[in-house]
Amino acid sequence: MTPAYQYDIQLPRHMDPDKTYPTIFTLHGKGSNEEDMSGLAAPLAADFIMIHIRGNLMFGPGYQFYELKSLGNPVREMFDQAVQQLEKFIHYASDKYPVDVNRRYVLGFSQGAILSMTLALTMGDRLKGIVALNGYVPDFVKGEYSLQSVRDVSVFLSHGELDPVFPISIGHETAAYFQPRTPHLTFNTYPAAHGVSEENQRDFVRWLKQDVSI
Predict the structure, then answer these.
(1) Hey, is 198 helix, strand or coil?
(2) Rounded to the nearest 10 degrees, how much is the dihedral formed by the CA atoms of 21, 200, 176, 155?
(3) Distance CA 99, CA 193 (A)
(4) Which 3-state string (H, E, C) describes the chain?
(5) What is the separation of C-alpha 100 from the centre of its chain, rounded to a whole number of angstroms?
(6) Residues of 180-205 as b/e, b for ≥16 C-beta within 10 angstroms?
(7) Whole-number mean pLDDT of the chain?
């Protein structure tokens, strides 16, 4: 299989060829690239296989995974295809590399967070957990997708209280959507705009290290 996406993989420095490792797949925001997520997730590189995925569509100086009709309104056909291709990519990488399939995480920001949450809802417990930073779940995903249980999926959501792109109310709505669906939900807000503060980074790094050892 030829993967739909270019990607950068970082393997733990001292790998045992007979072992599999917890793995984080990262998804960047619109107009960004995999290097931004590599820097954000760098404190986790010693403990995880890191697979940083690049969107397959050009957008300005960077990339995107799908296009928008308007803010918060994805082009449905492109969004559907991205979700399907990302799920296939996760299986492709899990076969190619020493990935522990019981400890797979998706970490995404903005557009990547939207896809991370959608993948949790479509893959269910085939993912151990997700970290979704400043995103939301599209209404058509909630109402029209075939959704899996996320009861056993660990979910870390965060949102900037000053986010001008997705207002903080969207963060609270997203947390309220997941709250009855999984007992393993963490939701934090930060005095930040549409970005990831140092405190936010420290919190999700600590959360991932704790969750993977449970």
Answers:
(1) helix
(2) 10
(3) 34
(4) CCCCCCEEEECCCCCCCCCCEEEEEEECCCCECHHHHHHHCHHHCCCCEEEEECCCEEECCEEECCCEEECCEECHHHHHHHHHHHHHHHHHHHHHCCEEEEEEEEEEECHHHHHHHHHHHHHHHHCCEEEEECCCCCHHHHHHCCCCCCCCCEEEEEEECCCCCCCHHHHHHHHHHHCCCCCCEEEEEECCCCCCCHHHHHHHHHHHHHHHCC
(5) 17
(6) ebbebbbbebbebebbbeeebbebbb
(7) 96
Question: Pairing between strand 57-59 and 62-64?
Answer: antiparallel
CA–CA separation, 55 and 78 (whole Å): 12
The token duo for 122 is 């479509």
Q: Are 63 and 128 in contact (CB under 8 A)?
A: no
Residue pLDDT, tens place only, 154-175: 999 999 999 999 999 999 999 9
Size of the chain, expressed as the number of residues it contains: 214
User: 73-74 and 68-70: which strand pairing?
Assistant: antiparallel
Domains of the chain, first to last:
20-212 (3.40.50.1820)
pLDDT one-digit tens code per residue, 175-213: 999 999 999 999 999 999 999 999 999 999 999 999 998
Per the CB < 8 A criterion, the answer to whether 209 and 136 are in contact is no
Cα-atom radius of gyration of the chain, to the nearest Å? 16
